[in-house]
Design goal:
With about 140 residues, this protein is an alpha+beta fold. Strands 1, 2, 3, 4, 5, 6 and 7 form a 7-stranded mixed β-sheet that branches. It has 4 helices and 7 strands, in the order αββββαβββαα. About 20% of the residues lie in helices and about 40% in strands.
């Protein structure tokens, strides 16, 4: 007998990826639009996106970084994972440390981003407002 939960059409999964780009002790953050119903709709974050059906998460994060910044990266390792339920959809998130040897001035941001900058890890709390993410970065010994 098969497990009903595995075949239930109501079970939906989505893979989210986050790319934390590192180069010579600096990290790339981007300012993006979140929601016009909040006080600060533009916030600093790392590049992120959704894996297309059948796409490897490792390839997804490299593609998204290239699309959003023009940088070519190599995935170094997974830093941490997270899950969040949105309605009946389970979102699995994977944060990757990605390395680049491209020059800082080669960053060309996409239209969906407002700005980009390279910062030191010690500056994360000055820009990143998501306390859970900061904790995950600490646990991963990034700062």
């Amino acid at each position: 007998m098969g497990r009903q939960a595995d075949t239930d059409a109501g079970n939906q999964y989505r893979i989210l990826v986050k790319g934390i780009v590192h180069k010579e002790n600096r990290f790339l953050i981007v300012e993006k639009f979140f929601d016009d119903n909040i006080v600060e709709p533009y916030q600093w974050e790392f590049m992120d996106g959704v894996a297309e059906f059948g796409e490897s998460p490792d390839l997804t994060v490299a593609r998204i970084i290239q699309e959003q910044t023009g940088l070519t990266v190599v995935v170094d390792r997974i830093l941490y994972t997270w899950t969040v339920m949105i309605g009946s959809e389970c979102n699995l998130g994977i944060s990757y440390l990605c390395l680049t040897d491209m020059e800082e001035d080669e960053v060309v941001i996409s239209e969906e981003l407002r700005s980009a900058k390279w910062i030191d890890a010690e500056e994360f709390p000055d820009y990143i407002k998501n306390q859970r993410m900061l904790g995950d970065l600490r646990d991963a010994e990034i700062y």
